[in-house]
Design a protein that fits this description.
With about 180 residues, this protein is mainly α. Helix content is about 70%, strand content about 5%. It is built from 4 helices and 2 strands; from the N terminus they run αααββα. Strands 1-2 form a two-stranded antiparallel ribbon. Helix 2 runs antiparallel to helix 3 and helix 3 runs antiparallel to helix 4. The N and C termini lie close together (about 10 Å).
Length: about 180
Amino acid sequence: MQYQVTDQEKHLAKNPHHIFNFNVIVTHLAISQASLEMGHGNPYYFILVPLISSMVIAYLYFHQKVVAEKGSWFVSAHWTLAWRRGRNLLISYLIAIVVIGISAILGDIVGGGMMMNDFSESDSSTSIIEKIGTFFSALVVFFTVLYNFLQTGISVYDAGKGIIDSKIERFCPRDMTSNSEV
């Protein structure tokens, strides 16, 4: 749905999407590479990625509350949309952590001959079950990041045109002061 918005509102509505995409790029590309270097192949250093990303998503959540009180409905709706995408990412992190935890427990229980070389400097090895769990977890997060990154890029374009899906009204209700439809 397209709404009557000012140029300033269009600009402000793009900000949460830029923050979300910047978070995805920095945490999932730069920080994941740094955690690989710091951990020398240890997958548990990847916990830095969801921790730092969660802090940015928390900012989206708390700032969305502030904008809902002070800003226009259109801008508030875009902050809500960005927060909801961040929430999807948090859910994928939770799924990944649970899968890695279960695979680590199973790897410790089974252990023994089902080991895989870590390709690290210390020539250590890890249970194949832990490796499969880690790869599956990475896959869940990867597809969630990819989908939300693409959707957020579309939302930046929509915000510049004064557009947002009318379904957002379930999460950010309109009132008498809301932007009118075109």
